[in-house]
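Quarterly update from the structural biology core.
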Amino acid sequence: MARQAHATREALPPQPVPAGGSAFLSPEWIHQVVAAIEEAKAKDPYLRGLVGDLTFKVAYVIEDAPSCVRSLYGNGSKVVVCVSLRNGAVEDFKAGSRTPSHPVDLIVTVPYGIAEKLFRGEIGAASTLLGGEVRVKPVNGFAAWTKMAAKSLVSASQVLKTARTVPTRFSLES
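Predicted structure, tokenized:
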């Protein structure tokens, strides 16, 4: 049976970290990354200032994930992680294999291999966006995107830096 990762900001229970880390994009890993980012924002005024005024809903669509990752979400063709931010705080997030039925402001599409390289720190967010490996699509006339695009690149780099502190086991690693 497929698992869904879902939590609200108030309900982020501590997740035990297995030896070697949780599997990249697994429900446990997503919970740990969200918790690490929230903790970092509480401690780091720079990060808090970068993301503090961001309010939007985004769907991250990870394409071409290995079968061992897709199987965590019912063997769909992709992994979709939806995050709702309100004033820079994660209000809600869900992960599954379907594009959300509820409205989102942005859809960020990335191949699994690029997502893995981003989280390993092998490539940067700006270069993948400018190179077309990561595609960002504003939805339903999300006009605020043009105003926040540059700040989002800086924010994404800082968030990825924090996410890399979470022990992670990638699909081809034992």
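The mean pLDDT is 84.
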